[in-house]
Write a structure and sequence with these properties.
With 279 residues, the chain is of the alpha/beta class. It contains twelve helices and 13 strands. Strand 10 and strand 11 form a beta hairpin. The radius of gyration is 18 Å and the shape is globular.
């Protein structure tokens, strides 16, 4: 099971406080979302592959035609918060209000129910489990906000889809792959690690994995991303590394992997036999 997902957000969402940028600052640096999302879309159409596109609600408001086109062509459209704020930065009331706006925005555009959610920075933790109730109330069926090997409710997150049980809530969870090195978890399925790791090392690991959750952002393929980021040289380097070859590597990998969306992958999971983590 190889799942392909994209977080559709702008370059300034890589900051913890994207709202600190004035509109004039954002405009002066240019944008990568539309250009790179269209490039991704063309690749998937060429290969006849499907993916899940997690949209930041505010960006979906700006580009409704692109959102609609992705849905029309059979891709799943999910939600990735309203303004790319981590769950931990909001209380339950704020989270419900903002997520509801984001979900309704996308549903109004595509005309179908949004069923998949991913928290910014995979920020569903033991301290924010109350978010599951909000997501369930909004009709979310599939969450993709946890990372393999991390702790959830005193248990280690497995490397396959599982169910999070919280009181009466049963949320179907698709975790992001990771491996442990020197005490740190590295999310090898996409984005930064995919850009930086040698492709010859990465390719067999991804192809042979029985379960793979890959995730990318438009900025992962933007070769001019360093010009958009502020004066911090380390931050510029971090997000520029590997952008020259990232899209080419994705093209090559797409010849060997039959990608699918979360929505379609969920149909292939025997949920009656999956692990349940009670929190």
């Amino acid at each position: 099971m190889h799942i392909l997902t994209f977080d559709i957000e702008e370059w300034y969402h890589l900051y913890d406080h994207p709202k600190r940028f004035l509109t004039s600052q954002k405009n002066s640096h240019g944008f990568s979302l539309v250009k790179e999302t269209n490039r991704i879309f063309r690749l998937l159409e060429e290969k006849n592959l499907k993916a899940t596109f997690f949209w930041v609600g505010e960006e979906a408001q700006k580009y409704p035609l692109l959102v609609k086109e992705l849905n029309k062509c059979g891709h799943e459209v999910g939600v990735h918060s309203l303004s790319h704020s981590k769950i931990s930065r909001e209380n339950q009331k704020m989270f419900k209000t903002n997520t509801e706006i984001a979900v309704k925005t996308i549903e109004d555009i595509i005309g179908v129910k949004v069923k998949s959610y991913r928290a910014p920075a995979f920020s569903l933790t033991n301290e924010s489990l109350w978010a599951l109730e909000v997501l369930t109330d909004l009709g979310i069926e599939y969450d993709n906000s946890t990372v393999v090997r991390k702790n959830l409710g005193g248990q280690i997150i497995p490397s396959t889809p599982f169910i999070i049980k919280n009181k009466d809530i049963m949320m179907k969870e698709f975790p992001v792959n990771s491996f442990s090195l020197f005490g740190f978890n590295y999310k090898y399925g996409g984005s930064g690690y995919f850009r930086v790791a040698p492709y010859k090392f990465l390719n067999p690991r991804l192809i042979s994995s029985p379960y793979l959750m890959s995730y990318f952002h438009p900025r992962d393929f933007d070769k001019s991303i360093h010009r958009k980021i502020g004066p911090n040289p380390l931050l510029k380097l971090k997000y520029r590394l590997g952008t020259q070859r990232a899209f080419r590597n994705l093209e090559t990998l797409s010849k060997d992997i039959l990608w699918t969306s979360i929505r379609d992958a969920a149909k292939k999971v025997n949920w009656d036999k999956t692990k349940i983590i009670e929190v």
